[in-house]
Amino acid sequence: MSEMSDKGMAVRRRVLGDAHVDRAEAAKDAFDAPFQAMITEAAWGHVWSRSTITDRERSMLTIALLAGLGNDAELALHLRATVNTGASRDDVLEALMHVAIYAGVPRANHAIAIAKKTFAEMEAT
């Protein structure tokens, strides 16, 4: 692995948690291993590891973008990651209110439902 891959894996584990990353790593095979390597290096090593904004701010941006694009599974994953990034539920609501204005009320409404369900699941465990 490259230095950027190592850096990316460390950030990925810090943000998403060891349990999630361990499951993802165990599930990868020859088909998706190159994809997993790319996102670890590019998303986590090149983008999430930058020091220009905080993990909290990056988390809010990611949540807004995922909600605006309708990427529900990734949205729930990043909502769960807020326990590691420092983004509060108020932060999430603010991000989703921006989604309503800039990406559409239906996307934000759906994302808010996902957030409520995800946060309830988090409280239950």
UniProtKB/TrEMBL annotation:
Its EC number is 4.1.1.44. Keywords: Lyase. Residues 34-116 form the Carboxymuconolactone decarboxylase-like domain. GO terms for molecular function: 4-carboxymuconolactone decarboxylase activity; peroxiredoxin activity. It comes from the Bacteria. Pfam families: CMD (PF02627). This is 4-carboxymuconolactone decarboxylase.
